[in-house]
Design a protein that fits this description.
Layout: E1 6-8, E2 21-27, E3 32-41, E4 44-54, H1 64-86, E5 95-101, H2 105-122, E6 126-130, H3 131-143, E7 149-153, E8 158-164, E9 167-173, H4 179-189, E10 197-198, E11 201-202, H5 203-208, E12 221-222, E13 225-226, H6 229-242, H7 246-275, E14 280-283, H8 290-303, E15 307-309, H9 312-315, H10 319-331
Parallel strand pairs: 2-5, 5-6, 7-14, 14-15
Antiparallel strand pairs: 1-4, 2-3, 3-4, 7-8, 8-9, 10-11, 12-13
Length: about 350
């Protein structure tokens, strides 16, 4: 990432051009501990630092307590690295923010504790940030879109979102497991992960290259909602019956990915027509998937509207999106006392209102 990348805030916020502020943000909702620093100057945001460290379990899935140990161990060194990269000190920071949820409790408490301490010790404003909103806002900053149809896909979320009446509204979402969790669970259960991602490709993508054939699997769309659990169960049953045959497993991986992505594209198109939005924004960790990005590019071409998929360095969890969204919230009057700075594991994306979205 270019450390001096500058992006104009895609909102009309009174007085923003006259202010110069430095925002420090901490992310730790799941496997990643991240520190981001941005500077507001002349109505634009300069990215000064975005340093992150991801906990990768040696085997199996993510254990919240073990991930939190990783975050505690990395917090100081990553903060120091971010400050050095940004060329600022803690005294220069104008506002401190942290990811308040949704996420894993032990992990959330790490960034909240660090942010509370710094805000108290240096007497800085403290801003709790909705992690899901931060994914959307950083995508809007980079794309320049002000009012897109948002497709938010990650290990913990799968949603179709629009802004309306000063808040974000969910038009459709998964009824059971999220898209990222579907891919990770399948890969882990059939023994092709961890690691889940190698050189930018998910284990299911790599497995799909073994055989491009397609086999029918459950396709469950209900209005603008989706369900992936039946798809996962059926794919796992087929994979176990394959008894390690590489070509058969390749066809199952390809079919699982195609079925899941096509379900998502269908509900996205339905929501696009329903909402009348004029652009498509893809955000979240799964936004890095090149096959999904290609499908949504084709969807946008069919409807003659622009599309933007967040690049890998900001698609996954990161401190930059927290520092930027914390800055937006501070500019709109949000901050809390350290003793009132809580975490919320099940915080919804559609809770709360945001003045910059308009009323």
């Amino acid at each position: 990432m270019n450390p001096l990348a500058s992006h104009r805030i895609p909102y009309d916020i009174p007085g923003v051009h006259a202010q110069e502020l430095i925002s420090l943000g901490f992310e730790s909702t799941s496997h990643t501990f991240g520190v981001g620093i941005v500077r507001l100057r002349g109505g634009a945001v300069e990215v000064l630092a975005n340093v992150n460290s991801q906990y990768k379990p040696p085997k199996g899935g993510l254990h919240p307590r073990e991930a939190s140990y990783h975050h505690m161990e990395k917090a100081y060194s990553l903060l120091k690295q971010a400050l050095e990269k940004a060329g600022v000190s803690l005294k220069d920071v104008s506002v401190v923010s942290y990811s308040m949820g949704p996420g894993l409790g032990p992990c959330l408490r790490v960034s909240a504790s660090v942010a509370r301490f710094l805000a108290s010790y240096y007497d800085k404003p403290l801003v709790p940030v909705n992690h899901a909103i931060a994914h959307i806002e950083i995508g809007k900053l980079y794309s320049g879109f002000t009012d897109p149809l948002v497709i938010y896909v990650s290990g913990g979320n799968t949603m179709i979102v629009v802004a309306k009446d000063g808040a974000y509204r969910v038009l459709g979402e998964t009824l059971d497991i999220p898209l990222g969790n579907l891919l990770d669970t399948f890969a882990r259960e059939i023994g092709i992960a961890p690691p889940y991602v190698v050189e930018g490709k998910h284990a299911v993508d790599l497995c799909s290259e073994w055989n491009p054939d397609f086999v029918p699997l459950p396709y469950t769309v209900k209005g603008s909602d989706l369900s992936f659990s039946g798809l996962l169960t059926a794919a796992l049953q087929r994979a176990r019956n394959a008894r390690g045959d590489r070509r058969t497993l390749g066809a199952i991986c390809n079919s699982l990915r195609e079925t899941a992505f096509n379900m998502l594209v269908e509900v996205a198109e339905r929501s696009l027509i329903l909402s009348g939005k004029k652009s498509i924004l893809l955000v979240g960790g799964v936004a890095s998937n090149t096959v999904l990005k290609w499908k949504l590019e084709k969807l946008s071409e069919i409807h003659g509207i622009p599309y933007y998929g967040t690049p890998p360095d900001i698609a996954g969890d990161n401190g930059l999106m927290i520092s930027y969204t914390g800055l937006l919230m501070y500019l709109n009057g949000f901050s809390v006392k350290p003793e009132e700075a809580f975490v919320r594991q099940r915080l919804r994306l559609d809770e709360g209102s945001y003045p910059w979205l308009g009323l």
